[in-house]
Amino acid sequence: xxxxxxxxxxxxxxxxxxxxxxxxxxxxxxxxxxxxxxxxxxxxxxxxxxxxxxxxxxxxxxxxxxxxxxxxxxxxxxxxxxxxxxxxxxxxxxxxxxxxxxxxxxxxxxxxxxxxxxxxxxxxxxxxxxxxxxxxxxxxxxxxxxxxxxxxxxxxxxxxxxxxxxxxxxxxxxx
Length: 175
Hints:
Blueprint: E1 2-3, E2 10-16, H1 22-44, E3 55-63, H2 65-76, E4 84-88, E5 103-112, H3 113-123, H4 127-142, H5 151-174
Parallel strand pairs: 2-3, 3-5
Antiparallel strand pairs: 1-2, 4-5
Helix pairs in contact: 1-4, 1-5, 3-4, 4-5
């Protein structure tokens, strides 16, 4: 299991069942740290409410086609490869009453590396750009947002996702 450097806002523990190079692992860790800063900024700006003052944690599985397909069958009854799956720790963290605990475990994410690679080629972007997009998308699901509930929810989640990606682009270009 790999853990990114502890950040004041979001800690991501991840494991990969696909062979990643040392360079790919380093890039993933670096970008997850930047993503943590982005999410912290959105919470601070009150864009993503209900997580202020909390240390967030999540687990991330980077896997292959067979594993994501098996998870998709088991948990969503969909027999196909998908790009990202989210398993929130609570039914609705977005609206849940918060305990006095300083830390919140958001849940588990699974990102399919081969699917992310295929999509990066399709969208003509880098693999890590697609990876971080999937990470933000999945994390928003863990935080209680769901684009499948309604068109309003789809617009709201899309807005927050785009804000996160825009902010991330600014930070990665400064690096």
